[in-house]
Amino acid sequence: MKPYYEHGGIQIFHGDCREVIPQLPGPVHAVLTDPPYNVGFKYASYVDSLPEDEYLLWLAEIWRDCEKAGALDIMWFWQGIRVANGQARAILPSGWRIHHLAAWFKKEFAGDMWKGGHPAFTWEPIVWAASSDPRAAKFSGPRGGHEGRDGLVDISSRHDKDAKGHPCNKTFRVVKAVCGWLEASTVIDPFCGSGTTLSAAKKLGKSAIGIEIEEKYCEIAAKRLSQEVFNFG
Q1: Which residues pair with 123 in a beta bridge?
Q2: The pTM is what?
Q3: Domain containing 170 — which CATH number?
Q4: CA-CA distance, 34 to 25, in Å (whole number)?
């Protein structure tokens, strides 16, 4: 299995993560990702409007694949209502638990155009799940101060110029902060999109594996990482 991109401990694989993860040559230590939310976004290679039960089973299968690949922690951005309804716990592998719940507050109130029957969405939870392994749930972030808090405030990353071309990528500053919480030396992102997790891991001196089903997003991520090599390598 040949990477789409590889440099300095960072790899990108083009394909379905359910097919790629079992073929990874070495173990991963943690997952940090932003999966599709199943809310109808227009993707070329993925249907973002599955029946809810089917969507949850699909995501649970991927978390189990990550566990088999060696992951002890899974951290992902999601929707508050699914967390409140217990769906975050329900899709975890057997024996796992919710270790912590953090929040990203969208500074520019990105959800103000929401037309649903409730207030606009202006924050998203970040779920940190951990296995029963004693090596899991090790926090390596700052102890105190603004950088050590679990309420992260930043603008939506659609303003990040180097990630332009992806419809719903997360802001680099927030992803870098939560990536820094993880003690893991190797991070996997099964839905790497424009490569924000990979860029954050690289900045923190971690190895990272990204998997992306749409080649145009692989290209954006590879270009982004290559520019970082050119500018800072």
Answers
A1: 105
A2: 0.91
A3: 3.40.50.150
A4: 23
Q: Which two tokens mark 139?
A: 């926090």
Lowest mean pLDDT among 3-7, 10-14, 88-92, 112-116: 112-116
Given a contact cutoff of 8 angstroms between Cβ atoms, the answer to whether 100 and 74 are in contact is: no
| 150 touches 128 (CB < 8 A) | no
Among residues 33, 178, 173, the alpha carbon closest in space to that of 101 is found at 178
Q: Residue 100 belongs to what domain range?
A: 5-232
C-alpha–C-alpha distance, residues 45 and 39, integer Å? 15
Please name the helix (run of DSSP H) or strand (run of DSSP E) that holds residue 82, with its range, or none: helix 80-84
- Token readout for 173 is 């500053």
Q: Tokens at residue 137, please?
A: 């749930």
**How many domains does one find in the chain?**
1
* Range in 115-129, 137-151, 154-168 with the lowest mean pLDDT: 154-168
Structure confidence by residue, pLDDT tens digits, 19-51? 999 999 889 999 999 999 998 777 767 788 899
CA nearest neighbour of 46 among 38, 216, 54: 38
* pLDDT value of position 232: 43
What pLDDT does residue 233 have? 40
Nearest to 106 by CA among 171, 155, 147, 161: 155
Q: Which pLDDT does position 26 carry in this prediction? A: 85
Q: Which residues contact 59 (CB under 8 A, 6 or more apart)?
A: 35, 91
Residue 144, burial from CB neighbour count under 10 angstroms (0-12, 13-18, 19+):
exposed
DSSP secondary structure string for all residues of 51-62: -HHHHHHHHHHH
Q: How many angstroms separate the Cα of 98 from the Cα of each of 57, 58, 86, 204?
A: 18, 19, 10, 24
